[in-house]
């Protein structure tokens, strides 16, 4: 008989990056890399577990922006083209490395990986990964939850509650359309919670959300069981808090498993290593060197990239199995201790960015596979569970108001509101106020006016993405974040002016509907 529960939660998110106006757009590679390195490997793990009769439970958010990209025909076609180029490159690598035994074996590994990815994506899943993940939810193995419509950081949108509500209601409507059921849970963007926002979740029919540890521990009144049991807000919506111990063991490159010296080195890629003329057809069209996803070296140690040693897949997989065993051992001891201390079965909630598994930590999906099998076969102390299943089993929980919080640096809003990005918000708040004004001024719009109002919603939502503020803070690619913010605000403003002047530029509107086609069934009245 189990003494406690483990809820593994993967947050699958990318900003909406789709540029039909360009034949080849660099930032679209974020999506293609994530499919190859994270989403398809996770699906392979799920398929293998199912085929081997392994019972498992996992929770996974698929954000509305990512889901929109999954079902977009243009991006689906471009991903296949992306894979075809990688398959061609690995064929050349097989020839180039044929006298270098260690690298040749790795070239064979990548050749198999890309061919299998193409087979899975095109033939098994029909190019639509929403239906691929939906299959496992329908089988009761995976609980898919939603997120804010465009991952807007909700605590910083509090000045206009209707904008917060719209992010939630639009997400819930898209989820129901794609997955054929109402969303039971939500990953609040960046785990950003503001007291009172749970009322909007209740209105959308959502039963639970996740917060960082201090969101629960600093709640009012103090939670009797800490983060090891959910709490109910006054609205009746449940909040689950993150367990720091189990989370840090996985996500920390310095202290956790991903930094092990046997694992693959992320930052050394043949896109930068090989002769320019040789690699030129497989990097960006403008000649910029980029990651190809083909990486031949392991972390090795605290040494410069030039001194990294060749990667050995078998040794890395053995280490992943060891780490899975270590993680399970620690969770067993944690559950046994908590069971005795609390006098009830605890739930350990372990949330992670999904892209950690496979993209950043190449062996992550293998580690997850080993862990889920070990939980099924090797012990009886810990049982996997989803938040919905836990609430069904244990419907009585303490009423607590969680504190304002996020899972960002220092735990509040500093990542998304600082000297690098604070200028954003005057424009976002003004646009949100104007969208509410439009919805209230034109409650019965039809025809081209309705089209313009709905497109105004899309432009506002895309501008509100927390990813742009995050990129300004981290400095990864601020010119792109600046362009996206500026473009969407300018597009919204031009639509607003045209609507107000009764002079909608229809060719311009049509162009925006082609460029920014997210949420095709959105209804602007959500802002009223």
Instruction: Tell me the overall shape.
Output: globular
Order of helices and strands: EHEHHHHEHEHEHEEHHHHEHEHHHHHH
CATH architectural category of the largest domain: Alpha-Beta Barrel
Total number of domains: 2
Structural class: alpha/beta
Give the number of helices.
19
Strand share of the residues?
A: 5-15%
Terminus-to-terminus distance:
51 Å
From the alpha carbons, calculate the radius of gyration and give it in angstroms.
Answer: 24 Å
Overall strand count: 9
For the biggest sheet, the summary is: 9 strands, mixed
Helix content range: 40-55%
The CATH class of the largest domain is Alpha Beta
Whole-number average pLDDT? 97
Oligomer type: single chain
**What name is given to the CATH topology of the largest domain?**
7-stranded beta/alpha barrel
Low-confidence stretches: none
CATH homologous superfamily identity of the largest domain: Glycoside hydrolase 38, N terminal domain
Keywords:
7-stranded beta/alpha barrel, nine-stranded mixed β-sheet, about 50% helix, 19 helices, alpha/beta, immunoglobulin/albumin-binding domain-like
What does this protein look like?
This protein is α/β, with parallel strands linked by helices. The protein is built from 19 helices and nine strands. It folds into two domains: 4-71 and 128-255 and 311-410, Alpha-Beta Barrel (7-stranded beta/alpha barrel), CATH 3.20.110.10; 417-527, Families 57/38 glycoside transferase, middle domain (immunoglobulin/albumin-binding domain-like, Up-down Bundle). The chain has helices spanning 29-51, 64-70, 73-96, 101-124, 129-138, 161-179, 198-203, 213-217, 244-251, 270-273, 276-279, 313-342, 364-377, 387-393, 424-441, 447-463, 466-474, 478-500, 506-515, and strands spanning 4-12, 58-62, 142-147, 185-187, 208-211, 231-232, 238-241, 347-353, 382-384. Strands 1, 2, 3, 4, 5, 6, 7, 8 and 9 form a nine-stranded mixed β-sheet that branches. Helix 12 (313-342) crosses helix 13. The longest helix has 30 residues, at 313-342.
